[in-house]
Amino acid sequence: MTLVSTLAPAYRGARRNPAALFAGFAAAIVMASPAAAQKAEPGAYVVARAGAQIDSDVKPTQVLAKGQTVSKTTPTLPKNIDHDGGFTGELGMGYDFGGIRVEGTAGYDTAKVNAKALSTKTYSGAGRTKSFDLGVAAYVDLVRDGPFKPFVGGGVGASRVDYSISRLMIDKTPGTQKPMVGIDGKDWGFRWHLDAGASYDVTPQTSIELLGRYSQTGGMKVKGVSLDESLVRQTTDYKMKNTSTSIMVGLRQKF
Question: Where's the Outer membrane protein beta-barrel domain (predicted)?
């Protein structure tokens, strides 16, 4: 079975199951890895990665204060807000101990809301989610002999997530207030990710890589504002959770 035939079903199912792509990468890597492994040359390195978020979602949960109620005419947000494909990238430094690598990175992610999925016959949806990520990660090279090195790994860290998501009643009258609901705020959350990929040593010091990643960020809390059909304004809290499946290409350069 080829690497392409192994990854194809996972790619097709990635939007239905965010972990499918990671599972496909991991399966392909295990199949491609020989049993024998030899120690790789250690050394410090810098790394740069960039790619696309294939699927990303925001899951808001409204939290009402004690005794607080929401009018039945107030528009609501779905429990899962789908996003279009977006950008993801990171820069970092690490150390290769000889088949085991540890690195620290700073990254940036951004994706627009899937406006069609968020809209209804009555409401028009729009928005964007952005995040600044800081983290540490560890990777194990499954093959340490030869230029081709499949690897698996993962990391933990923190993300500063910026939300701007809204639903607005469709009305042809310009300049008038309309019933709406929106989230607009920033907060830090705990982030973890699982990675699988493969690198190729162009020279003893320079490697290129292809990496698949599933990440999840939780623990954020932001304010939401709504106007019901009587244009009564109400503020509520939302607990937020983000998930993302992405593919990146990278370059590692040893010192």
Answer: 24-252
Q: Using alpha carbons, select from 68, 59, 67, 81 the residue that is nearest to residue 234.
A: 68
Q: Quote the radius of gyration of the chain (alpha carbons, Å).
A: 22
Q: What is the pLDDT along the chain (255 residues), one digit of tens a residue?
A: 444 444 445 445 545 554 555 555 545 544 544 433 344 578 999 999 999 999 999 999 999 888 888 888 888 899 999 999 999 999 999 999 988 999 999 999 999 999 999 999 889 999 999 999 999 999 999 988 889 999 999 999 999 999 999 999 987 677 778 889 999 999 999 999 999 999 999 999 999 999 999 999 999 999 999 998 888 898 999 999 999 999 999 999 999
Burial class (CB in 10 A: 0-12, 13-18, 19+), 176: exposed
Do 7 and 211 meet the contact criterion of CB atoms below 8 Å apart?
Answer: no
CA-wise closest residue to 54 among 166, 211, 189: 211
Q: Is the dihedral of CA 82, 87, 93, 97 positive or negative?
A: positive
Instruction: Provide the number of structural domains found in the chain.
Output: 1
Cβ count near 29 (within 10 Å): 21
Cite the beta strand spans of the chain per DSSP E.
Answer: 43-63, 81-83, 86-96, 100-112, 123-141, 148-169, 180-201, 206-227, 233-254
Q: Are 135 and 158 within 8 A, CB to CB?
A: yes
Segments forming the whole domain that contains residue 156: 3-34+41-254
d(CA 5, CA 24): 10
Report the CATH number at residue 52.
2.40.160.20
Number of CB atoms found within 10 A of residue 210's CB: 16
**Distance set, CA 59 to CA 6, 11, 28, 77 (Å):** 30, 22, 30, 10
